[in-house]
Design brief:
- It is built from 3 helices and no strands.
- With 121 residues, it is mostly helical.
Length: 121
């Protein structure tokens, strides 16, 4: 079937172009930060019970430990808002942060008791 200008009418129809908008899944940055800081804190804080080197390691690990706990709590609260996105990461950051805090606290008590009893001299 030909039209007046010479084009085939059966071939001229094109289906409408549909564009699909891809949405990124929500990301819980606080939960990710808490988990990473928890891993860093544990990697440094695990050295706290070792003589002399542990004093430095416990002191250095204290800052990422507090940040891991803080971001873990913020990420856990944010996961409720984001339909549980990042909940496992936030819990991992909290567990690692509190575990490192316990290691540092226990090591500090042992070190203070050791030096208070005169064991250092």
């Amino acid at each position: 079937m030909m039209s007046r200008n010479g084009y085939d009418l059966a071939m001229s129809y094109q289906p409408p172009v549909t564009y699909v908008q891809i949405q990124k899944p929500p990301v819980n940055g606080s939960a990710i930060a808490g988990m990473i800081l928890g891993i860093v804190a544990l990697a440094i804080g695990i050295w706290a019970p070792i003589p002399f080197f542990g004093l430095v390691a416990g002191t250095v690990a204290f800052i990422p430990t507090l940040l891991a706990i803080t971001f873990g709590h913020i990420g856990l609260a944010g996961s409720k808002r984001l339909n549980n996105t990042g909940k496992a990461q936030a819990i991992t950051g909290l567990v690692l942060g509190y575990l490192t805090l316990a290691i540092i606290a226990f090591s500090s008590v042992v070190w203070f008791a050791f030096f208070a009893s005169g064991g250092g001299s």
